[in-house]
């Protein structure tokens, strides 16, 4: 969308609409009201996810869309699971199976294909 809005306005609107739509699903998700308050680590993890994955990510996303092609920015949706696998293996000692490795290889190959024309033209411009 080529709207003349600041990234903060776009992110706020998107988050408000998605939050209101999510509230409509609450009766179908929770059969029982929670009886215990979550622990401190759980609350900190939830707040971190809320702030970083929602607010900061949306601000960055709309800021990037104003500066890059939408197709380039949409690659973040493809690379995010790859980064999650790498972070899980690095920080949490998770094992990456052969199927996951094959999937990562396919994703990375697709990204190389996407940028290949630009990289090739830049290389040729430097060479000549």
UniProtKB/TrEMBL annotation:
Signal peptide stretch: none
TM region positions: 12-30, 42-65, 72-90, 96-116
Keyword check for Cell inner membrane: no
Main location: membrane
Location of this chain's protein in the cell: Membrane
Coiled-coil spans in chain: none
Presence of keyword Acetylation: no
Short name of one Pfam family: EamA
PANTHER family given in the database record: EAMA DOMAIN-CONTAINING PROTEIN, INNER MEMBRANE TRANSPORTER
Similarity comment: Belongs to the EamA transporter family.
Name of the protein in its database record: EamA family transporter
């Amino acid at each position: 969308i080529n709207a003349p809005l600041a990234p903060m306005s776009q992110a706020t609107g998107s988050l408000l609409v998605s939050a209101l739509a999510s509230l409509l699903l609450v009766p179908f998700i929770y059969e029982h009201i929670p009886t215990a308050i979550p622990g401190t680590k759980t609350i900190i993890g939830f707040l971190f996810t809320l702030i970083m994955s929602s607010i900061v990510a949306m601000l960055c996303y709309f800021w990037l869309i104003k500066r890059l092609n939408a197709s380039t920015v949409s690659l973040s949706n493809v690379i995010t699971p790859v980064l999650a696998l790498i972070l899980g293996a690095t920080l949490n000692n998770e094992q990456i199976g052969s199927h996951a490795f094959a999937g990562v290889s396919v994703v990375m190959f697709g990204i190389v294909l996407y940028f290949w024309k630009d990289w090739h033209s830049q290389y040729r411009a430097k060479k000549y």
